């Protein structure tokens, strides 16, 4: 891994879909499909929908649908609309998350709730959820609908669990992992699994891609949590220390409390309880000095390795290679 890390970091500067030329036209079709299905009779719905969907995200989750379907030799066109379904669901969760977290910056831009208020943001999130299910009905696959409906339910539970853990310095690593498996990894898992289901892949390949998505999603979130203590607002597209300000006990904080002195541990506990950024600098210093960053990064690397190992069940192809590359990129990025 260290020998290729530098190459991976360079490739991180590319958009993920540019890693495989065969995917680029399909990815463009997904973007067109998304824009064409944001229409509404209510102008504000359409305005907010376009604002959040076009706000510069990498579209990693719909890309995973495309790669999974192609890796399983799918030859139809429903993977385009299915990718849009996943992106609509993801965008809906972002709208709701920003309201719950009272966030004012995402992807380097004002959040929708900062521009239009909480109520319109929540309701447009609901619109995107319902539009996703309208598209799924058109696809007409009950197994796919079963996976995605279950995923949206688990994601909602993960969000509530995270809310319950906020400002709780006694949150354990296991409890934290339960949150990110539901809140983040579940949609990655659903994206790769439905791509395989759409291709009518053997059960072994469906399970392999489901496991790949889950481990990739966990790795992705672990790196996100590290970046809250290492990156700048410009790199992340959100405010530095947002997790700390919201009193979220992420893994770097949980591990820092295990390894820190009693005085430093109490400072972190107090900061989690009250939220805010008054103690941001000393907490960042404690997180760095205790090795909590490296600990979390190692956990992310282990998850990326598990994701790559899951791909062994797939036939060799450029799409499988790109899935492997994405697992490396997930743990070697700065944005």
TrEMBL record:
<dbReference type="GO" id="GO:0008299">
    <property type="term" value="P:isoprenoid biosynthetic process"/>
</dbReference>
<dbReference type="GO" id="GO:0046872">
    <property type="term" value="F:metal ion binding"/>
</dbReference>
<protein>
    <recommendedName>
        <fullName>Octaprenyl diphosphate synthase</fullName>
        <ecNumber>2.5.1.90</ecNumber>
    </recommendedName>
</protein>
<comment type="similarity">
    <text>Belongs to the FPP/GGPP synthase family.</text>
</comment>
<dbReference type="InterPro" id="IPR000092">
    <property type="entry name" value="Polyprenyl_synt"/>
</dbReference>
<keyword id="KW-0460">Magnesium</keyword>
<keyword id="KW-0808">Transferase</keyword>
<keyword id="KW-0479">Metal-binding</keyword>
<dbReference type="InterPro" id="IPR033749">
    <property type="entry name" value="Polyprenyl_synt_CS"/>
</dbReference>
<dbReference type="InterPro" id="IPR008949">
    <property type="entry name" value="Isoprenoid_synthase_dom_sf"/>
</dbReference>
<dbReference type="GO" id="GO:0106350">
    <property type="term" value="F:all-trans-octaprenyl-diphosphate synthase activity"/>
</dbReference>
<comment type="function">
    <text>Supplies octaprenyl diphosphate, the precursor for the side chain of the isoprenoid quinones ubiquinone and menaquinone.</text>
</comment>
<dbReference type="Pfam" id="PF00348">
    <property type="entry name" value="polyprenyl_synt"/>
</dbReference>
């Amino acid at each position: 891994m260290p020998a290729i890390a530098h190459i991976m970091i360079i490739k991180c500067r590319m958009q993920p879909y540019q890693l495989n030329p065969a995917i680029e036209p399909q990815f463009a079709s997904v973007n067109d499909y998304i824009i064409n299905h944001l229409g509404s009779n209510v102008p504000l719905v359409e305005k907010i929908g376009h604002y959040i969907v076009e706000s510069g995200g990498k579209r990693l989750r719909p890309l995973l649908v495309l790669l999974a379907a192609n890796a399983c030799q799918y030859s139809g066109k429903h993977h385009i609309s299915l990718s849009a379904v996943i992106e609509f669901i993801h965008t809906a969760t972002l709208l709701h998350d920003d309201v719950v977290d009272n966030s004012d910056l995402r992807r380097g831009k004002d959040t929708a709730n900062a521009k239009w208020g909480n109520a319109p943001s929540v309701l447009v999130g609901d619109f995107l959820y319902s539009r996703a299910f309208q598209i799924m009905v058109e696809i007409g696959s009950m197994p796919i609908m079963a996976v995605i409906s279950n995923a949206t339910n688990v994601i909602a539970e993960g969000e509530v669990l995270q809310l319950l853990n906020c400002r709780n310095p006694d949150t354990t690593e296991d409890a934290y992992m339960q949150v990110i498996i539901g809140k983040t990894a579940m949609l990655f898992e659903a994206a790769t699994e439905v791509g395989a289901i759409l291709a009518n892949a053997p059960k072994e390949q469906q399970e392999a891609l489901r496991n790949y998505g889950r481990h990739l999603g966990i790795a992705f979130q672990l790196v996100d949590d590290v970046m809250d203590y290492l990156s700048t607002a410009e790199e992340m597209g959100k405010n530095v220390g947002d997790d700390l300000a919201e009193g979220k006990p992420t893994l770097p904080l949980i591990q820092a409390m295990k390894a820190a002195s009693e005085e430093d541990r109490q400072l972190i506990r107090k900061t989690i309880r009250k939220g805010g950024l008054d103690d941001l600098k000393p907490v960042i210093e404690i997180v760095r000095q205790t090795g909590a960053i490296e600990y979390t990064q190692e956990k992310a690397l282990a998850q990326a390795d598990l994701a790559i190992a899951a791909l062994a069940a797939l036939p060799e192809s450029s799409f499988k290679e790109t899935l492997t590359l994405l697992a490396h990129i997930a743990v070697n990025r700065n944005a």
